[in-house]
Amino acid sequence: MWHFVKRAVSVFFPKYSGRADVQCGRCGDFLIMVVLHVLFEHAAGYALFAVKEVEEIGMLLPQVEESVLSLAKFNSMVSLAAFFPFKSAQAALENMNAISEGVVHADLKLFLETNLPLSGKKKPSLGVSDAKIGAALQEEFNISIQTGGVVAEITRGVRLHFHSLVKGLTALAASKAQLGLGHSYSRAKVKFNVNRADNMIIQSIALLDQLDKDINTFSMRVREWYGYHFPELIKIVSDNSMYCRLAQLIGNRKELSEESLESLEEVVMDSAKAQAILEASRSSMGMDISPIDLINIERFSNRVVSLAAYRLELQEYLRSKMSQVAPNLAALIGEVVGARLISHAGSLTNLAKYPASTVQILGAEKALFRALKTRGNTPKYGLIFHSTFIGRAAAKNKGRISRYLANKCTIASRIDCFSEVPTSVFGDKLREQVEERLSFYETGDMPRKNVDVMKEAVKEVKAETSVVKKKKKKQAAEEMEVQAEETPAAENGSEEPSAKKKKKRKAEAEEVEEAAVTDNGAEEPDPPAKKKKKQKTETVDAEETPETPVSEKKKKKKKKE
């Protein structure tokens, strides 16, 4: 159809041949023959571009790739059809979040309904860069969606020349909008998991592994370095951290005497070893060492000792975190192995979503894919191999106990992930079940039924949660009482000075009144006196005035008589 229209244009309008638009004879506007629209999402807003001669563009894809860099050539193929700017940064963030999740936002829906010709017989084709949002748009509007190929090249050109294609938008404003949206989007992604406590477990187990490697490497370096001076000490002491502490304590072996035997016993925790070290230092075949070299060895061994002490603190921290975040998993399989499972899965929630078959081989992905590639035997266990159960099982029962243990690990992780009050009751019961299964494989004793064990665990959990809730209520009530006591104390403290001021004012007013009454008698008070003074003086005048007429009346009556 498009070739027929183009041929008709070239025949009847020769001067417009080779163009994708025809000027109307009535209004003078150019009628664009648009087959494809391209949606572009920018930090400033949504833009809809009309693409001309889409079939020729598809045939000449290498030339399109070259013409994308030139704005004049790109304008001949693509033109802006509509632009919808975002009202605020919050609106831009909401729209971008919806696009990243593959959801059609209300703003995008309104924009496409307004500017995309959906009512015609032939429905338009829309090109998008993301296939996820394309599927959502196809379901929403029932239109054909294109991704990749020509659309990808056009999107690349639009991204390059966007500030030139949209009127009123400069390159500086576009970059500022992108920067602000990028910051807010990344901030929202970081805040998405702000309450996750298993992040600390993941970082702790990674740091613990790194510390093990570093302590081992540094200890071997101390052994080699100090071994030139005291080579016999390597055979006597095998522990790395103990060797570094001894190298720091002994220093020059020639200065070692009977007086330092007690300090050696404190480090070695064995009197026989301490005596052997003392005897070996007297008959050592090591070379002499300079004081400067000895100082450097002591400093380095001090660093190794401090790293070993920090590793113990970190292990205790990991144990406490596991008891808070995943107590059942820690009780079942141990803190270190449980932390490795959480770290390998990415989070406790991801581990809870895994089936038991995945948990069983978690950590053995290379062996699994190699077995699938070579059509060999798949691995029986991954990280759970480091648990004590598989090591205690016989060779023929290792696969069976690994399946059973993986099943119990998934149950424990799901309980830890979705329980409100963290308790280790279920983990202890699951560990008992694994122990019973091990004894069943060895001796044939039948284990308890899972239903009975879980009923006991539920009863214990209910009792424990009720106690925990009561404690929380008491703590909340105590906090409320403390707050209630603090607020009236603050109010009384603010009211006390005002009450004292009022008392002082009353006392001063009474003194002024007494002075006015004694000095002036029945005279009126001074103008600066207050209302209370005026009222008192008025009462005094009222009491004095009626005495004179009463005495005059009595005198008149006596005269008449």
UniProtKB/TrEMBL annotation:
One BP annotation, GO: ribosome biogenesis
Q: Which InterPro entries match?
A: Nop56/Nop58, NOP58/56_N, Nop_C, Nop_dom, Nop_dom_sf, NOSIC
Instruction: List where in the cell it is found.
Output: Nucleus, Nucleolus
Query: Which GO molecular function annotations are given, in alphabetical order?
Result: snoRNA binding
> Which keywords does the record carry?
Nucleus, Ribosome biogenesis
Gene Ontology CC annotations of this record: box C/D methylation guide snoRNP complex; small-subunit processome
Record domain Nop: where: 325-443
**Quaternary assembly:** Part of a large pre-ribosomal ribonucleoprotein (RNP) complex, that consists of at least 62 ribosomal proteins, 45 nonribosomal proteins and both pre-rRNA and mature rRNA species. Within this complex directly interacts with TCOF1 in an RNA-independent manner. Core component of box C/D small nucleolar ribonucleoprotein (snoRNP) particles; the core proteins SNU13, NOP56, NOP58 and FBL or FBLL1 assemble stepwise onto the snoRNA. Interacts with NOP1 and NOP58. Interacts with NUFIP1, RUVBL1 and RUVBL2; RUVBL1:RUVBL2 seem to bridge the association of NOP56 with NUFIP1.
Instruction: Give the protein's function.
Output: Involved in the early to middle stages of 60S ribosomal subunit biogenesis. Required for the biogenesis of box C/D snoRNAs such U3, U8 and U14 snoRNAs. Part of the small subunit (SSU) processome, first precursor of the small eukaryotic ribosomal subunit. During the assembly of the SSU processome in the nucleolus, many ribosome biogenesis factors, an RNA chaperone and ribosomal proteins associate with the nascent pre-rRNA and work in concert to generate RNA folding, modifications, rearrangements and cleavage as well as targeted degradation of pre-ribosomal RNA by the RNA exosome.
- Per the similarity annotation, which family is this? Belongs to the NOP5/NOP56 family.
User: Which PANTHER family does the UniProt record give?
Assistant: NUCLEOLAR PROTEIN 5 NUCLEOLAR PROTEIN NOP5 NOP58, NUCLEOLAR PROTEIN 56
Entry protein name: Nucleolar protein 56
What is the organism field in this record? Amphiprion ocellaris
